[in-house]
């Protein structure tokens, strides 16, 4: 029968095989890159980026990717093509406070082709590559560069990865400044309930329920070293008048001069945000026009040596449902023990996820 589930399986097998071949290719390239060519310098490069306009981190045909843009910038800098290898793959829309990659560079003189010059200092690489990156949308920057041995691989040498996920809660429309930077949850979130649910999920488990289809990891067993949720100040944050006065009074020699207005206006203040609007009649308690009602902001932190495909977003999806009261801690235990992704809640949006740090034991 045409279109039956049985006939559709070969395409999935081909897709799986493609991912497996990519992993094999990465390892083969790692072996090839371990040559002892003294003319080549390997650099470990830390980058930050806003993932909104990227179709993920890995190179893809006819798509704007993190690796593609970075390789282009290096090409313009050194005058020859390079290959970039990332420590962690991020999906379209996912951001990075610090993703790490490595690149091999052979410095050839542009004035005398064929003449090999001493490697560039890391600070020179950082400034030069950023110069070209800023001419390309400006949504990616190099934040650190270090020379490493030519057998150091950004992906396989990583010891730990930390992800952050931002949620904003509130019935008001999402602020323009938060668009594509956080997941907007209209409902109120119960922080204590979410923290209790984290205790169920942290540790060494079979995370099959938090493993998206297409994951090519050999085993669903992972050790989640940290899963934590906390409330943080809304962003962008600007100090209230009270905070500014407290700061000025703590300075011995204040160089500021200001006149205190009759009414204090807490601008984007975390502690005073909920006092700015009377929830009974919707009017401002301060009778001031043009002050936005702020959302409550939360950050989920997940830390482990490695993660399964979409694991963090699936974890956050369940925590969000606990926060809204759709699930209980017992439900979280049931989902974990079910060992199937169909038992989990819909995963969180990509826009709230940030790769925060990749840890190494650097030489």
TrEMBL record:
It is an enzyme of class 5 (isomerase). Keywords: Isomerase, tRNA processing. It catalyses: uridine(38/39/40) in tRNA = pseudouridine(38/39/40) in tRNA. SUPFAM superfamilies: Pseudouridine synthase. GO terms for molecular function: RNA binding; tRNA pseudouridine(38-40) synthase activity. The keyword Transmembrane helix does not apply. The keyword Isomerase applies. Its EC number is 5.4.99.12. InterPro entries: PsdUridine_synth_cat_dom_sf, PsdUridine_synth_TruA, PsdUridine_synth_TruA_a/b_dom, PsdUridine_synth_TruA_C, TruA/RsuA/RluB/E/F_N. Residues 18-29 have a biased composition (Basic and acidic residues). Gene3D superfamilies: Pseudouridine synthase I, catalytic domain, C-terminal subdomain, Pseudouridine synthase I, catalytic domain, N-terminal subdomain. One of its GO terms (biological process) is tRNA pseudouridine synthesis. Residues 1-33 are annotated as: Disordered. Pfam families: PseudoU_synth_1. Residues 46-156, 197-361 form the Pseudouridine synthase I TruA alpha/beta domain. Belongs to the tRNA pseudouridine synthase TruA family. This is tRNA pseudouridine synthase. It comes from Gossypium lobatum.
């Amino acid at each position: 029968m045409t279109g039956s589930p049985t006939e559709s399986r070969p395409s999935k097998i081909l897709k799986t095989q493609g991912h497996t071949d990519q992993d094999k290719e990465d390892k083969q390239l790692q072996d090839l890159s371990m040559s002892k060519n003294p003319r080549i310098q390997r650099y470990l490069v830390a980058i930050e980026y806003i993932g909104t306009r990227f179709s993920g981190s890995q190179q893809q045909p006819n798509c704007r990717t993190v690796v593609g843009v970075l390789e282009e910038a290096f090409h313009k800098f050194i005058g020859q093509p390079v290959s970039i290898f990332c420590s962690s793959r991020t999906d379209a829309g996912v951001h990075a406070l610090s993703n790490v990659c490595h690149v091999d560079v052979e410095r050839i003189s542009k004035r005398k082709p064929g003449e090999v010059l001493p490697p560039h200092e890391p600070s020179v690489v950082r400034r030069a590559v950023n110069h070209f990156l800023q001419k390309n949308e400006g949504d990616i920057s190099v934040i650190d560069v270090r020379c490493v041995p030519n057998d150091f691989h950004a992906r396989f040498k990583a010891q730990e990865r930390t992800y952050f996920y931002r949620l904003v809660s509130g019935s008001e429309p999402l602020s323009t400044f938060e668009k594509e930077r956080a997941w907007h949850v209209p409902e109120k979130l119960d922080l204590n309930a979410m923290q209790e649910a984290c205790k169920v999920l942290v540790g060494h488990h079979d995370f099959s329920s938090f493993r998206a289809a297409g994951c090519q990891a050999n085993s669903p067993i992972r050790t989640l070293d940290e899963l934590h949720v906390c409330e943080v100040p809304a962003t962008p944050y600007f100090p209230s008048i009270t905070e500014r006065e407290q700061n000025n009074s703590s300075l011995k020699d204040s160089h500021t001069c200001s006149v205190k207005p009759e009414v204090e206006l807490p601008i984007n203040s975390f502690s005073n945000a909920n006092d700015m609007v009377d929830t009974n009649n919707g009017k401002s308690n301060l009778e001031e026009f043009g002050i936005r009602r702020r959302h409550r902001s939360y950050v989920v932190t997940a830390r482990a040596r490695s993660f399964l495909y979409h694991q963090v977003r699936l974890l956050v999806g369940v925590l969000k449902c606990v926060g809204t009261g759709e699930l209980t801690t017992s439900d979280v235990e049931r989902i974990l023990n079910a060992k199937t992704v169909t038992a989990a809640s819909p995963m969180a949006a990509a826009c709230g996820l940030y790769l925060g740090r990749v840890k190494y034991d650097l030489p």
